[in-house]
């Protein structure tokens, strides 16, 4: 990524320092605090002072295993891609009036010129730069830079935490979009973790009237019933086969859940794979063929932030209820391990604290 030193500030706003604190993954299982230079801006970028960063399963995977598929942490990396903050400075081509505004950040930079970008599928851009995906640094830092049009203004009614969690909400919205959820739809979701609960809320916002969710944890199922789902199923004891739902969204990554979920889908229904699991899974191919079931993966999202902000502001989605752990930047290592504790859903890191 190219850099320039041209950036604007306005009177009455704090001067941006030359250096910042960042929590850096040095190697597998090893986080360290470092002092780094504040990022310099391209003409179309803004500098965001980070307020809140959600911990994602991919962050945990990089921390624990040092890689996800072909993406390998072979150099120090700043984790974190679910974030909100306040614009602290702008590039030379950006209106200085943006300085001081609270924003939610879509943490990616597509090339805008490839075949996929021009077709409106910029999430599939082969040259996309995505926060906290090697070698691109993320947001466990006091400041980040992003293209101005990927920093979305948020109303005062949306908290810093909810604004940060628009990123996983976008995954849920994109899954529902791919699944064709509409008023009256019947949906099955496997996995009552953060993404599963977010997907349930998104499905409800899209108009689904029956939202089944399955998991092995009774406490998570109970929570999901309070926040989006209409029916809870214990994956150990309750069969989902034959539910004849319009769509199945897997947020578990568990091979058995995927196979069972497919058999819960009615003719011409849709199966959307969101959860990270095994690279290869055995599927009931004859069932898929005989019922003309559509099966698709989900890779991030496209153009979801405006809708997400509106749904939160209108009270149709509640993300604040997901936050169960709060950590300082220096305690990022503890935040990455918080998910191992019973009752934890979403850890959030606050670089300014």
Q: End-to-end distance, in Å?
A: 29 Å
The pLDDT mean sits at: 94
Put simply, the count of helices is 10
Q: In percent, how much strand structure appears in the residues?
A: 25-35%
- Rg, rounded, reads 20 Å
Silhouette? globular
Low-confidence parts, pLDDT < 50 over ≥5 residues? 1-6
Structural class: alpha/beta
User: What is the number of strand segments?
Assistant: 21
Summarize the biggest pleated sheet.
8 strands, mixed
Helix content: 10-25%
Describe the protein's architecture and organization.
The protein is α/β, with parallel strands linked by helices. It is built from ten helices and 21 strands. The protein has helices at residues 57-65, 115-118, 160-164, 166-179, 194-205, 218-226, 255-262, 285-290, 305-313, 332-337, and strands at 7-8, 19-27, 30-37, 45-54, 67-68, 71-72, 77-78, 82-91, 102-105, 108-109, 129-130, 143-147, 151-153, 186-190, 210-215, 231-234, 245-250, 265-273, 294-297, 323-328, 346-350. Strands 1, 4, 8, 9, 12, 13, 20 and 21 form an eight-stranded mixed beta sheet that branches. A hairpin with a 2-residue loop joins strand 5 (67-68) and strand 6 (71-72). The radius of gyration is 20 Å and the shape is globular. It starts with 6 loop residues before the first strand and ends with a strand.
